[in-house]
Design brief:
about 280 residues, mainly alpha, MetI-like fold, about 75% helix, elongated, MetI-like_sf, peptide transport, protein transport, BP-dependent_transpt_permease
Length: about 280
């Protein structure tokens, strides 16, 4: 049975894939349906949803279109989640590979640095970093990656410690390959699958962290974010709860979709590896 067929036979994988397809569709269609600035005034303030079909999800306190903000906010969530996960996985894989393959003093130093980062909660680290450097999309991505690379580093190190004793690594040493070449060309590709399995968790955590930072006013001020929309709705939570509920539901569904799709991929690859 092909991996794709196994993936499609898992109900949680299908549910996650449907949610992610809807999210990507929202992000890609934002400029098509709302080509202008999503923060421009579009109608009367605090218009409830479904009262005016030109503004199906209503307007916020300043009269901005909630649907336009929602679609453009999906772009920010996806950009931050994917970029932070890619950065964390890349840094973690490199550090874990160097620590596991070199051993000795290099392993000890790199693992103590990893321990130091792990002692600080990732959200507090991101909060402190953004507060010092200043809010922007690149800074938020870097701040989230700073607290997320330690997990992939430990997983990569554990895999490399096992792989480095295998025959093909000894053969690479015999033919005179440089240790770094062996580590990154021969060992790392074989250690990557368990590391990549963490990607769904990192993406989901990154989206939540970005929303929390935006909620606290530390997101990119030039971009619409779901966390910022939720924070905007706090002042009128009693009279216009939809301003916080709509982006909140979108945030929950996104994280759920990423997690379910990731679990489906992990189960599919686990079955394939066990069969092989």
């Amino acid at each position: 049975m092909s991996p794709l067929r196994r993936f499609l036979l898992a109900p949680e994988a299908i549910a996650g894939a449907i949610i992610l397809v809807a999210l990507f569709t929202m992000a890609l269609s934002a400029s098509l349906f709302f080509p202008g600035d999503p923060q421009t005034i579009a109608g009367p303030a605090l218009l409830p949803p479904f009262q005016d079909w030109s503004l199906p999800l209503g307007t916020d306190r300043l009269g901005r279109d909630v649907l336009a903000e929602l679609l453009h906010g999906a772009r920010t969530s996806l950009a931050v989640g994917l970029a932070a996960a890619a950065a964390a996985l890349a840094v973690g894989a490199i550090v874990g590979t160097l620590a596991g393959f070199a051993g000795g003093l290099v392993d000890e130093v790199l693992m103590r640095i990893t321990d130091a980062f792990q002692t600080v909660p990732s959200f507090l680290l991101a909060l402190a970093f953004v507060s010092v450097v200043g809010p922007s999309l690149g800074v938020v991505v870097t701040a989230i990656a700073l607290g997320a690379w330690t997990g992939p580093a430990r997983v990569a190190r554990a895999e490399v410690l096992s792989i480095r004793e295998r025959d093909f690594v000894a053969g690479a040493r015999v033919i005179g390959m440089h240790p770094l070449e062996i580590a990154f060309r021969e060992v790392l590709p074989n250690a990557l699958p368990p590391v990549l399995a963490l990607s769904s968790v990192i993406v989901a955590a990154a989206i939540l962290t970005e929303a929390a930072l935006s909620f606290l006013g530390l997101g990119d001020p030039n971009r619409v974010t779901w966390g910022g929309m939720i924070a905007e709705g706090r002042a009128v939570l009693r009279t216009a709860p939809f301003l916080s509920i709509i982006p909140g539901v979108a945030l929950v569904l996104t994280v759920l979709g990423v997690y379910l799709a990731g679990e489906g991929v992990v189960e599919t690859t686990a079955v394939r590896r066990s069969l092989s």
